[in-house]
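Title: Prediction job returns without error message
Component: structure pipeline
Severity: low
Priority: P3
Assignee: unassigned

Description:
Job completed but the reporter wants confirmation the result is attached to the right record. Sequence as submitted:
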Amino acid sequence: MKRQITALMALLIMLVLFSACGSEKNKQTLQEADHSGLTEDAQVTLEMDFPDYTGKEEWTYCIFSNDAEQDLCYGLPEMEVLIGGTWYTIPEKEGTAHTMELPYLSAGYRGAVHVPFSDYARDFSLGQYRIVVPYTFGTYTTDKGWDHMATAEFSIVKKAKRTDYQPFVGQIYEPDKAVRGGVIAISGDRIYGEEILETFFYKALSGVPCEMRIVYPELDLCEHYVYKQGCYTIQSYEHRAVTTRCYSYVYIDPATEDLTFTNYVDPDQAVQDGFSVSEPEDVFALDVVSEETQAYVQKVHQKDLTYGPVLRVCLFGPERDVLLVRMDDAYMIGYDNNGSGQLLEIDQQPVSIRAVSETAAVVQFEKTDGSLESRIFDVEKGGFE
């Protein structure tokens, strides 16, 4: 018995010491936040993707909206904590480095600002925090500096509120129960949980990771959507089988006015250029979004048409993709493999590209006799097999 008590006391002492070490970062002296000279503009807003976090997440995400009539440039976000009614700046960890980018946000558009918890020299205890983003309209100059700021508050709590999606096999299809579980239900001509649908596209079109699930009771169909790093992954659960598709773009089909997922920047133009655009491989329609979402999709889509690749095929996730870029009359094929890649000029125009694995896509070329030639492009090998 004495030996058990001694062991218990030793364990308690270790826990006390560990707790003291863990909170050592919070004992450092914080500097009161100083934003003198910076003003806020009601047309430029910053909002958190969630109102609360636990502090153990890897990232926080903000939606940065510019509803003013001019473009803006913005700087590195800062993290602050509210103590006794006063905001204090949380310092970054020693050795934290940043690239010399100068991001901008066009008038009338939204963008994502992401901030990693791990960059800061603090244990995020329960309380109130905020992100501060400095910005300036027009062109930023070092002598002028920043003259505006936008802020977004959030709480650190023990358990953050998130939707706990059930396995497909246990998903409830009854509309009212589905919505209570954070799932959209489409039954007949009615949408249950439309606000969930709109929130998903609001975040995704801003570049913020998000997910949603839709059930169709009459069809015995369940679809799960995930947006991350420019990739829409859609899993369909039907007849006890799961089908996974990935898409890079959304646009409003001019013929049906449906919101449509695709890997082509402009599917109609791709057809005119000789590409084989087919259903359901290359396009996937969803016709239940609001007019507001449709209008913003059109706006973003028209902007995308002015630059970028002809086609982007995600290889079953956001980390790897194959790109087709048109430069004058020449085509180049490229890839992204976890942040590394290159563009390669090709002497033939592909007519289709399909993902076949997490690292490879099959590329089809039309030969002079009209037949098709298939070649495998592997991103890990950095070219065709």
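Comment from assignee: result matches the submitted record. Residues 2-22 form the longest helix (21 residues).
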